[in-house]
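Can't paste images in this forum, so I'm doing it all in text. The chain is below; anyone willing to post the predicted structure tokens underneath?
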Amino acid sequence: MNRINIKLQENKKLLSIYFTAGYPTLNDTVSVLEKLEKSGVDMIEIGLPFSDPLADGPTIQASSTTALNNGMTTDVLFEQLKDIRKKVSIPLIIMGYFNPMMQYGVEKFCQKCAEIGVDGLIIPDLPVKEYNDNYKAIFDKYGLINVFLITPQTSDERIKFIDEISNGFIYMVSSASVTGSKNSFGATQNDYFERISAMNLNAPQIIGFGISNAETFKQATKYAKGAIIGSAFVNHLTENGINNIDKFVSSILDS
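Text version of the structure:
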């Protein structure tokens, strides 16, 4: 069974952390992964930096620009991760845009992920129908989970279709905006969380965008299986380097 599915079966609320590969410095990727696992994180999203991101806010855009300037590429990331399963056991997901994957070759990319021990992909700009029609068989062949995103504007019909073809979790975007930290969620977001929860979908939901602290983590996981923190953690790396990662995680989980 895929590590993501095993993790989703655990009787706890899950914390997933996003960071940009090759940030703050090119060779920090593996150290960040190791420190996050030791700190008690449940899953990690490894951002593959891209020069034209659609959904990323200024914090993650800046980290992607730095990582690209540091020399991060798809080949470099795969080389960094080649022995990662000797060091890290929790689920690992690559989050990136479809263009670099197409340039690399979709099947070749998926095969490489499977060889390394990557468990899934999040590709915000790959349309669900195009994935289902043209790429699902490749993902299934290599045992990879493709994680789909929904937003407050996603129709019930589309959500049900996504739920039908999902074999992991659904990434529930908290608001119709780019990534970025918030201190709390308002009534609009809570109404959305309640609406999706009431649909009783088969796939668990994990909420991302705007999760930055213990308060927003608790608010999100009241309605969902887990929550994803990205910009707030990237800010931590910007300010502290790869030091004190355990303090950042404990500030979310132990409050």
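The CA atoms of residues 24 and 238 lie 7 Å apart. The mean pLDDT is 93.
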